[in-house]
């Protein structure tokens, strides 16, 4: 980062700010498209700004009109005069480390969240959980990776240790059997010690909670002990060593119905030790293309397909009752990923929020038809809103008594993103 001038840093910052709020792209994707040397610095400066705006504005000498800031539309934010001041403020920090040490002290406070979100947390889970959510979402996200069966945690951690200049410290995840978590931002895709392993497909960047959801789809009863009936109360009680050494499950037909760019698809394929089949569906051609690129020949048991939105029943008729497991990782409000994508705090479109449960229920209704007798349907979302989690599960259960509840619950956001997951079995 030292090689980029102060002036260019300021320009880069302002450009990212404007792109972030003038398109639906989220912070982590927006940063991933920036030049390599600037990524860590941008991740740090944007992360602190959006997670803890109260403290940053004070330090940068910026005044906002109290809570009004939460009512600005993305378009207003993109054009906001204060962003220019912030870009100048941040350009005086020459590295991510400099930002980290300056903002090391300080916790998120209530005014770092939209008042509506806070009120909702208190109403849904009580003031103690709400307070923990404020704290936990105010902390920086960790880089976490999922190791494939071909790379042991010991081997990977030895590589990381040998490259402490680029990668810092890492340790095994407390939740995900094949997860490794870094203390700070870690450029695992480009650091000399890990670049080669990534190119060979030996590990993937994947949030620990997302890894747990894939494991839950294959084995809900084991993973259930991590889940809780309220967020911020996950229980790291699994014998991860035993899970890592477990034999491959019998080959299964698994459908990842809302596969996106394939984070969970790849995890499922690897958990099956390359056996069975994982069918990845999504309505977005771009995402399915990204998924195919990501598979890059490492998993031969993945088949990806774009599904026309609204025509699922017709399109998938020939696959009715064919799957052992169907995972519906449905679109949602994303309130569980405030730490990684704090820009979501400004994208609370009430109308869209109110449509989410209907969309989730519709998708469950469509994809349940693919589950064979005795097979499993798994629902997942990266949010804690009861309307999009427990209420959807309840409504689906009433409509489909042929599906018997296996159970589920909330995970995170202690160190991972926040999720809700639930499983049924077709009787
Ligand atoms: C929460 S994201 C999935 C994330 C993904 N499973 C992962 O692990 O990265 C929800 C996905 O559902 C997709 N989607 C929306 N409607 C759909 C439908 N009718 N059928 C299949 N996928 C759909 C969206 O395009 C989006 O990629």
Description:
- By secondary structure, the chain is of the alpha/beta class.
- The protein has three domains: 6-106; 144-204, Alpha-Beta Plaits (2-Layer Sandwich), CATH 3.30.70; 207-426, Rossmann fold (3-Layer(aba) Sandwich).
- It is 44% helix and 15% strand.
- It is built from 20 helices and eleven strands.
- A seven-stranded mixed sheet has the order 7-6-5-8-9-11-10, with helices on both faces. The protein has a four-stranded antiparallel sheet with strand order 2-3-1-4, with helices on one face.
- Helix 19 packs parallel to helix 20 (390-399).
- The longest helix has 18 residues, at 350-367.
- The radius of gyration is 21 Å and the shape is globular.
- 43% of the residues are buried.
- The model has no long low-confidence stretch (mean pLDDT 93).
- S-adenosylmethionine (SAM) binds at residues 210, 257-261, 263-264, 281-284, 287, 307, 309, 312, 329, 331, 363.
Secondary structure category: alpha/beta
The CATH superfamily of the largest domain is identified as Vaccinia Virus protein VP39
CATH third-tier fold name of the largest domain: Rossmann fold
Q: Report on the biggest sheet.
A: 7 strands, mixed
Q: What is the CATH C level class of the largest domain, in words?
A: Alpha Beta
**Order of strands, widest sheet:** 7-6-5-8-9-11-10
Tell me, rounded to a whole number, the average pLDDT.
Answer: 93
How many separate structural domains?
3
Apparent shape: globular
CATH architecture of the largest domain: 3-Layer(aba) Sandwich
Runs in which pLDDT lies below 50 for 5 or more consecutive residues are: none
Which small-molecule ligands are present, each listed once? S-adenosylmethionine
Helix % is: 40-55%
